[in-house]
Write a structure and sequence with these properties.
Strand order of the largest sheet: 25-24-23-22-28-27-26
Helix content: 25-40%
Number of strands: 42
Largest sheet: 7 strands, antiparallel
Radius of gyration: 54 Å
Length: 1886
């Protein structure tokens, strides 16, 4: 029972003490006068009676009523019901408020004379003062208060005959029940009757209509915002002009928050004087009169709800988290159904006639029911996350917030997180967590209705029905008795307040009221307390929680297969099957991203601990730790899924023995996780374990099957999980118990609380002590555990756990595989940074002690441990930590001695013969480099990268071999390599390793063969090893001397750095010859080398460190050359003769002879008919070092004049002929650019004795003479008519710059414009696609010679007076532009890091930026222009830059386009040898082969030429004998330095080093291929890889390719790669092992399918899917081998097929020309001689030089031809035509004694009287000879051992000679007979 009213107060208006305009309230009387003991009188009532301030009014207002709420210091709410009425001001009262003092006095005089009659109205300026009756109560019965105060006022106004003292006394003594749904009728003794109903349960709030009103005023969205704001502790302010509305709105909002109680400032009506309360920092719900709106707007962080305007204003700085979806939208839709039921029917065609609309009170309950359901859904299962920390003397309960959020899947949810952290929820836990208490509607709902709510989710009508049911219950709670007897309370009459009151409100008799109160108190004392016993029960826990939304785990869904993998891996680890475990480990690490797999791991490990398998060997330990680390890596600091909690007992259980007495536990290797440094985690763990032990304390031993529940602080105990009733300790918090009869800790606690009152005092004390000691022992246990996980293994390093905000920055998890011991590394890898405040660097122990002490303080205070015990703990903690540090020292010491961890075995790369490892494998990870295919890009396929393996450095290559880290790819070997020489850029990078995500140092190596190695070094690779690798790589890449390159060190006679061995030969060897040559060259170096030119190659001995003496030697030769050195003397010295013969053997000379470009005779009398001659003037490389020894010059020019001509040109590269058109006889010349005239003049003037000017002029004249000689040597122009110029062009074709106009290109680098070709051809612009103009339009008025030169250089050339030559100035790009462009091309093709926007667009953009294709376009354009000119009969001199880069490119392309010979394999080789090697393209300089060239960088001029050839090949695929692979092969090997072919810068340098002419015959050492051509030749015999099957040339075809950029394609050499074996250009390495044929599978099983998956960028597609012809040729070879025949060479088979096809196609003439094989393919020319006869020149050339070969026939015996470097590419075609083969075929021959039978190719030669045999039919080397002169008899033979089985016995025959008997066997009897007949006839002929 409780008093209805505590105090009755009368408050009146009084003047303000400081005399301001406002008055203030004064308490006139209060009853009772002394405070109740249990309830002191609340202060400040007078402020709340008039919240807007006490003011006088000019007119009488009607009485007002509202209820203010005051909250006292104990958070008790006092309801102040205020009824205010107005009374006329008495003169004394009026003082301070009159308008002015004088008027006031007058009034007083007048009013004082006589009393006014009661009925007369007051004077017009009468003022009224407010007076308030206040009822103070702790109960909230608003209507009763309104009626009671109204009654008192009525008695006063109406003057009823009732004593006010009695009424007030009765009011103060009226007792009513608090709750229980009883009904009470009261009367205040004035003939009144009121019925009071108490609610059924006290805990449910009473809202009347306030919630419904709130929704009406503000709307659904606004109320939901306010609801969330109040729950998440924001400040809410209501504004209204009505006080009653304010208190209703506040009451409504509080009712919505049930079952949470609002525990912050709550003032429904705030008085004006207290407005500064609004700027308090704490949250609040406050109501303020709308008059003060302006003040409210200044507040920045307050949410303002304007009830009158219906708006809610949320400031910008405030974020109100919304309800989690789908609850937000569900709640919204249900609310709209409740508030506006017609919404559902608004669209119906036939709406029902009437809608039963709920009453306002009912609607109010329905709205509350919606929110009640919402809370039940939000907090469902909360009881499973309660920890019972103490049961006696009072329950102490903690809520496991992280587990709750994790189970609900709401860790990310801002709203729930804030609610659970809020004060309201803390109150909810302490109030509702109690296991034994009265229950209410919410408890029922959350325990029993959850399933129903889930089921109803998608059925709005069912939801509505549920809401209505709940609303009924809420309504019934407020109004338990529907048939309420009518209230009977007198009310004042209408407008009674306007009548003049008889008198002011009287002063009541205090004594009388007090007497009534005392009477009642005395009566109460005698009566027994009518306490209705509360019905207390065990609170139901309800079903275990589920996630609010079943979010699918996406990739890591809980698939049974994943869990199976985890279980298998663990069982393999414990069974010691390490290989199996290793295979599964990557899959397990991936599966452990999923929650289920992590829990499964914890459970599995737990079972092994229970089976006493916790002591592991090193490998097992590594695996277990690695898996644990992976689990913990994804744990947030909250550990919301209890994974860290489940692993905590395990990390202190698993261990390994390091040495006797030293054991390392797993905890020392899993410390690097943020969760261990989170106090909340430790608290939750602690409370969970305490709960388990407290539960065990009260369970009967029989019930308790949990082996871990025995109390104690030892390791591994306390593994039961919070809230679990099950002995399976690893059950989640919040999971259901396994069997129904097990009792949870809450059930046990509830039972104990029920029994508590019945226990004796001693028993109670005993239980309290037991519980306390349980908590205490757990605290000690946890102090130990925390020290295990917080103290690093190596405490000297002072590394402490770092508490960081986000998990994202957490470096990785796995310390397990760090260095030789998992533990040893933990400390080194992290910096000293502490997760504890105020921890000094050196004081690890101190920091840990502080952390543990803070923890111990908190949990022990909360769990009620006595202060003595707590002090004891504080003393123990430092000792625990110190002991642990000492143990760790031993562990750390021992762990350092562990052998290194077994890593995957390194795969050794396959090496070439002669290739040696320089640095053995360094463990690295190969990372993806931006090429998408390798990482499983758009083409699909597996993610081959990142791969784990090792990088090897050999003398020739950098090689990575390894396996993909992605376990799904399988065990594919990944190889990426490139030649060391191709390295263009090396940079250090810092990258994350793909497996452990540790930041490691790495290297990025980029090569010009378009390979990129982006590597991260493994942790075990020290920085010194990485540095050594870089240094060695650098050393190999840039050797100080060219002798250090792989091609020269490989199998060489001398080791690099030592002088070559002296060869003691009778005749001069080529080496000595080379040296003589160089000496002579030095003597004869002329003036031209004195100039300071760009390029001055130092001599070989001093390359790398040019000494001053050496320099002097080259520069100080100042005397003029003797004429004899320049004229070809007939008396050549023998060494010179040898030189000459070698020179003649060079490629250029062979080519000149083919072209009929002149003879070289030893006599002085030259054949004058020849326009050109071969001049040996440069044989000693005296005139121009970078030119070949023999040059083609006009017949009329003397050798000594050449010396002078050469001075005009850069690098002395004067114009020489390099090709002649067979048709038009026009010649192509090449030279360096011209010297600027000024420069020449200047330097002549300085050095020469003669006056400079004339000297320069003489040079220019010589130059003009020379050009004139060239012109006149051309047959058509010999008459020198002088009219053949371009002057006939119409002016339309002339540009603005003189005759040629500007020949700029549209490209960015400037260059040749598209219309040059057309101007030259005399036609309009070329066709749109860049096709050349039609040659039919060519006009005759041409110059005889066009000089194509650089604009800048041609200024020095005088125009020809007779206009026989014309200058074509073009703008060309320089070598540095090629270099820059190539760099960008490399970046485009191999980006180095993944593109920001994947897809082709970014590649094409960067390709365009590189301008590579624009340069290709210009080269092709200039070349086509030159081809046009030559084809029309004009000669062309290409004179660009120094004459060795772009000149070479253009000249080579022109020859390739004009002459079909260069499009054959042999021709292309000749072209490269002649134009690139002999004419001195600087391969070493452009390829930066040595240290000296390092700064200049790599400039791929030759590669650019090959790219141009590739473009032409694409457009004319049938015109080339070689395949595109041949071009790629050359592109790769011209930079690889594997062969000597592309080393050095000129023939001169090659001779100097002794490379050019290898020794012949017996002197030649057997060795690896030194020449790339030799290699190509050998390889071509074996495989058609370089051959183009589509080769079907049209005779004398001049190619004119399209050159526009749109017609060019990116060469796949730049983009393709084969990760299975590395680049396919080292053929020995590229051939993988052959696949076993179908029948004989190694496993002996049934034949499997031969299908193969070909992966992009992994497999070599040409090998996986060879083209049809290669396939057929392979098949033929295989079948021949099976049949026991010597297989035929592929080329012979191919030629035979083609010949047969041609014959078939002839007779009827129907062979379609498009058919590849039928087209008129000229049969392959067999040898050089044949070529010369078929060439365009009619005569065969006579080489009448003294030489070591016969001077007559060029087609001399093929054996010599094969030896010579001139041998043609397919030497297998030279099947010795010069021999006489009378009869030939295959025979089996029995070897000598004990040797097997072998099939050989036998040739019977009747001319020489021999029987010769060869290995194969196409073999040129004879294996043996039987001289028929020695044969005595030929007789039938018999099969001996090992003879072929399938052959008939009669096929055997013997040949008996004087020396031995030869046993033969033919393939069948007839052929045996034939052989015998042939041999017999041969013998008889003899």
């Amino acid at each position: 029972m409780a008093r209805l009213a505590d105090y009755f107060v009368l408050v009146a208006f009084g003047p303000h003490p400081r005399g301001s305009g406002e008055g203030q309230g004064q308490i006139l009387q209060r009853f009772p006068e002394k405070d109740w003991e249990d309830n002191p009188f609340p202060q400040g009532i007078e402020l709340f009676c008039q919240p807007s301030g006490w003011q006088l009014c000019p007119e009488r207002n009607p009485p007002t009523f509202f209820v203010a709420v005051l909250t006292d210091i104990n958070s008790e709410r006092h309801y102040c019901a205020c009824l205010t009425f107005w009374e006329p001001v008495e003169p004394t009262q009026e003082g301070p408020c009159a308008r002015d003092a004088a008027a006031r006095e007058e009034e007083a005089d007048e009013g004082g004379s006589g009393a006014l009659s009661p009925s007369a109205p007051g004077p017009p300026d009468q003022l009224f003062a407010p007076k308030t009756l206040v009822l103070v109560s702790r109960l909230d019965h608003v209507e009763v208060f309104r009626n009671s105060l109204g009654l008192i006022y009525t008695i006063h106004v109406e003057g009823l005959n009732v004593g006010l003292e009695n009424v007030v006394g009765n009011l103060l003594t009226c007792l009513i029940p608090l709750a229980g749904g009883s009904q009470r009728t009261i009367s205040l003794g004035a003939g009144d009757r009121q019925v009071i109903q108490t609610p059924l349960t006290d805990s449910l709030p009473i809202s009347r209509c306030s919630v419904a009103l709130l929704f009406r005023q503000l709307g659904i969205t606004n109320v939901l915002s306010l609801f969330c704001a109040a729950l998440t502790e924001h400040k809410v302010l209501f504004l209204s002009r009505s006080y009653q509305r304010l208190s209703d709105a506040c009451r409504g909002l509080l009712a919505l928050l049930f079952p949470l109680r609002y525990s912050f400032t709550y003032v429904p009506i705030l008085p004006a004087q207290l407005l500064e309360v609004l700027s308090t920092p704490t949250p609040f719900i406050i109501g303020v009169n709308a008059a003060f709106q302006a003040e409210a707007q200044e507040l920045l962080d307050v949410i303002v709800a304007d009830l009158d305007g219906g708006t809610v204003t949320v400031p910008e700085c405030v974020h109100i988290p919304p309800l989690p979806e789908p609850l937000q939208s569900q709640t919204h839709s249900i609310l709209s159904m409740v508030l506006d039921p017609e919404l559902e029917l608004a669209d119906l065609a036939f709406p029902p006639p009437t809608m039963s609309i709920s009453s306002l009170k009912m609607q109010d309950k329905e709205l509350r029911a919606v929110f009640l359901r919402l809370f039940a859904q939000l907090l469902q299962g909360y009881r499973w996350c309660l920890h019972m920390v103490r049961i006696h003397p009072e329950p102490v309960i903690r809520f496991h917030k992280a587990a709750f959020l994790g189970q609900r899947g709401l860790v990310e949810d801002d709203f729930l997180m804030k609610v659970l952290e809020g004060m309201a929820f803390a109150g909810f836990v302490s109030e509702r967590g109690v296991p034994y208490r009265p229950t209410d509607l919410f408890d029922e709902l959350v325990a029993h209705e959850v399933a129903r709510m889930r089921a109803d989710e998608n059925h709005p009508q069912r939801v509505l029905r549920h809401v209505k049911e709940l609303a009924e219950q809420l309504y019934k709670n407020e109004n338990p008795y529907p048939a309420v007897a009518m209230h009977k309370v007198q009310r004042p009459g209408e407008a009674s307040h306007l009548r003049r009151a008889p008198r002011p409100f009287p002063r009541l008799d205090e004594g009388m009221v007090q007497w009534i109160v005392d009477q009642a108190a005395a009566k109460m004392q005698g009566a027994p307390p009518a306490v209705k016993a509360e019905k207390r029960t065990t609170v139901p826990s309800g079903p275990p929680m589920t996630a609010i939304v079943e979010r699918s785990g996406g990739l890591h869904g809980n698939s049974a297969r994943r869990l199976e993998v985890v279980r298998n891996c663990i069982s393999y680890v414990f069974e010691g099957k390490m290989l199996e475990a290793k295979k599964l480990l990557p899959a397990v690490l991936r599966a452990l991203k999923g929650r289920a797999a992590r829990r499964c791991l914890a459970q599995e490990l737990h079972l092994h601990v229970q089976q006493n398998r916790a002591v592991l060997d090193h490998q097992q330990f590594d695996f277990v730790v690695r898996m644990m680390n992976c689990c913990l890596q994804d744990c947030t600091s909250l550990d919301e899924h209890g994974i860290a909690a489940a692993l905590l007992p395990l990390v202190t259980a698993f261990c390994r023995k390091l040495s006797p007495g030293v054991t390392q536990f797993a905890y020392s290797c899993v410390q690097e996780h943020v969760v261990w440094s989170t106090p909340q985690f430790w608290e939750a763990m602690f409370y969970g374990d305490v709960q388990t032990h407290i539960r065990a304390l009260y369970l009967e031993p029989a019930e308790d099957q949990d082996p871990f529940s025995v109390c104690g602080g030892s390791l591994g105990r306390g593994m039961g999980r919070p809230g679990s009733r099950s002995p399976v300790p690893l059950r989640q918090v919040g999971e259901a118990p396994l069997q129904g009869d097990e009792r949870s800790a809450l059930d046990v606690a509830s039972e104990q609380r029920r029994l508590w009152p019945t226990l004796s005092r001693e028993k109670q004390q005993e239980l309290v002590q037991k519980e306390e000691s349980t908590v205490f022992s757990q605290a000690i246990h946890y102090a130990n555990r925390m020290s295990y996980l917080l103290l690093p293994l190596d405490s000297s390093k002072s590394r402490l756990l770092r508490e960081r905000a986000g998990l994202g920055e957490l470096e990785s998890a796995s310390n397990s595989l760090v260095t030789n011991s998992m533990a040893g590394s933990v400390a080194e890898s992290y910096d000293t940074e502490s997760g504890f405040e105020d921890a000094e660097a050196g004081d690890v122990a101190g920091a840990v002690v502080r952390f543990i002490n803070r923890f111990v303080d908190k949990v022990c205070t909360e769990s009620g441990v006595t202060s003595d015990h707590l002090k004891g703990l504080h003393v123990m903690v430092p000792d625990i930590v110190q002991m642990h540090i000492e143990t760790l020292e031993a562990v750390h010491r021992e762990s350092k001695r562990l052998p290194p961890i077994q890593k995957p075995k390194l795969l050794r790369p396959r090496l070439l013969p002669g290739e040696e490892c320089v640095l053995d494998g360094l463990r690295v990870y190969l990372l993806p480099d931006g090429r998408e295919e390798g990482a499983g890009g758009p083409g699909g396929g597996p993610a081959l990268l990142p791969a784990e393996g090792a990088v090897f450095l050999t003398t020739y290559r950098v090689i990575f071999t390894g396996m993909p880290t992605d376990p799904l790819v399988g065990e594919q070997v990944v190889v990426r390599s490139f030649p060391v020489a191709a390295l263009t850029k090396e940079k250090r990078i810092s990258v994350q390793t793909p497996v452990d995500q540790l930041l490691q140092d790495g290297l990025q190596l980029r090569s010009c063969t378009f390979q990129l190695l982006k590597m991260a070094f493994d942790e075990e690779v020290g920085s010194d090893s990485a540095e050594l690798f870089r240094k060695q790589l650098h050393k190999l890449r840039y050797p100080p001397d060219i002798r250090g390159t792989f091609a020269l060190t490989l199998g060489s006679a001398h080791t690099p750095g030592r002088p070559p061995r002296a060869t003691k030969d009778k005749g001069p060897s080529f080496r000595t010859l080379s040296r003589n040559l160089v000496k002579n060259a030095k003597k004869t170096i002329g003036r031209q080398y004195v100039t300071r030119k760009k390029y001055n190659p130092p001599s070989w001995e001093h390359r790398g460190q040019p000494s001053p003496e050496d320099q002097e030697d080259e520069i100080s030769v100042s005397e003029e050359l003797e004429p004899s050195t320049l004229t070809p003397s007939s008396a050549l010295k023998p060494s010179d003769r040898m030189t000459m013969s070698s020179l003649v053997e060079r490629a250029c000379c062979r080519d000149y002879q083919r072209l009929g470009l002149g003879t070289l005779s030893s006599s002085l009398s030259r054949a004058k008919s020849e326009p050109f001659r071969i001049s040996p003037v440069n044989r000693m490389y005296a005139i121009c070092r970078s030119y070949p020894g023999l040059l083609i010059v006009p017949q009329s020019i003397q050798d000594n004049a050449l010396q002078r001509v050469s001075r005009c040109y850069r690098q002395n590269r004067f114009p020489v002929v390099c090709w002649r058109s067979g048709r038009s006889k026009a010649v192509l010349l090449r030279s360096g650019g011209l010297h600027g005239k000024g420069v020449v003049g200047l330097f002549k003037a300085q050095n020469a004795p003669s006056p400079g000017q004339s000297q320069a002029d003489s040079s220019s004249l010589e130059q003009e003479k020379y050009l004139q000689a060239v012109v006149s040597s051309m047959p058509r122009y010999a008459d020198a008519s002088g009219r053949n110029t371009l002057s006939g062009f119409s002016s339309a074709h002339m540009g603005s710059h003189g005759k040629w106009g500007s020949v700029r290109a549209s490209g960015r680098s400037g260059g040749l414009s598209t219309d040059v070709g057309s101007r030259l051809a005399g036609v309009g612009p070329p066709q749109a696609n860049g096709a050349p103009p039609d040659p039919g339009f060519l006009r005759p008025q041409r110059a005889a010679l066009y000089i194509i030169g650089d604009k800048a250089q041609l200024k020095g050339v005088r125009p020809d007076p007779l206009q026989q030559w014309e200058l074509v100035p073009i703008e060309v790009f320089e070598a540095r532009q090629v270099k820059a462009s190539f760099k960008k091309l490399l970046k485009a093709c191999v980006p180095g890091c993944p593109a920001t926007e994947p897809g082709p667009a970014s590649f094409l953009r960067s390709l365009e930026d590189s301008e590579w294709l624009i340069q290709i376009h210009k080269l092709l354009q200039v070349s086509v222009l030159v081809v046009e000119l030559l084809d029309s009969g004009s000669s062309v001199l290409v004179s660009l830059e120094d004459g060795w880069d772009i000149t070479t490119q253009v000249v080579s392309l022109v020859q390739l386009l004009s002459d079909p010979f260069y499009r054959t394999l042999e021709g292309f080789r000749l072209l490269v040898e002649k134009e690139w090697l002999s004419f001195g393209h600087r391969f070493s300089h452009r390829g930066a082969h040595t240290l000296a060239g390092q700064s200049s960088g790599f400039t791929p001029v030759f590669l650019q030429f090959l790219d141009c050839v590739h473009q032409i090949h694409l457009q004319f695929p049938m015109e080339f004998e070689f395949s595109p692979f041949y071009l790629k092969f050359l592109g790769y090997h011209h930079v690889s330095r594997r062969f000597r072919t592309f080393l050095l810068d000129s023939d001169y340098e090659r001779i100097e080093l002794g490379l050019l002419y290898e020794e012949k015959g017996e002197r030649r050492a057997p060795q690896a291929c030194r020449s790339v051509w030799e290699y190509v030749e050998r390889l071509s015999k074996r495989t058609p890889v370089f051959y183009n099957y589509m080769y079907a040339p049209e005779d004398a075809e001049v190619l004119r390719p399209y050159s526009n950029v749109s017609n060019l394609k990116v060469w796949d050499f730049y983009t393709e790669e084969t990760l299975a074996e590395g680049p396919p250009y080292d053929w020995e390495l590229a051939q993988g092992p052959p696949e076993p044929p179908e029948e004989e599978r190694p496993d002996g099983g049934a034949p499997q399918s031969r299908r193969r998956v070909v992966w992009p960028c992994y497999d070599s597609r040409p090998r996986a899917q060879p083209d049809a012809i290669s396939r057929l040729l392979e098949e033929m070879q295989r079948l021949e081998t099976e049949l026991g025949r010597p297989p035929e060479r592929w080329k012979d088979a191919w030629d035979r097929v083609k010949a047969a096809q041609r014959l078939e196609g002839r007779p009827d003439g129907r062979g379609t020309p498009s058919s590849l094989l039928v087209s008129s393919v000229p049969h392959h020319r067999r040898s050089l001689g044949v070529y010369l006869q078929e060439g365009p020149v009619g005569s065969t050339l006579s080489l009448s030089l003294d030489s070591d070969q016969s001077s007559g026939s060029t087609a001399s015996s093929s054996r010599q031809a094969a030896r010579r470097s001139t041998s043609t590419l397919y030497s297998q075609f030279q099947t010795a035509e010069s021999e006489n083969r009378s009869y030939e075929g295959t025979l089996y021959k029995k070897g000598a004694f004990m040797k097997p039978w072998k099939a050989r190719w036998f040739v019977l030669d009747k001319t020489k009287h021999q029987l010769r045999y060869y290995d194969h039919r196409v073999d040129t080397e004879c294996k043996g000879v039987i001289d028929l002169a020695e044969v005595e008899a030929v007789a039938p033979g018999a099969p001996t051992m090992g003879a072929p089985k399938t052959v008939d016995e009669k096929a055997f025959f013997d040949v008996k000679t004087t020396r031995r008997v030869y046993n033969f066997c033919a393939q069948d009897v007839p052929s045996a007979q034939q052989w015998v007949d042939q041999i017999q006839s041969c013998l008889s002929d003899a």
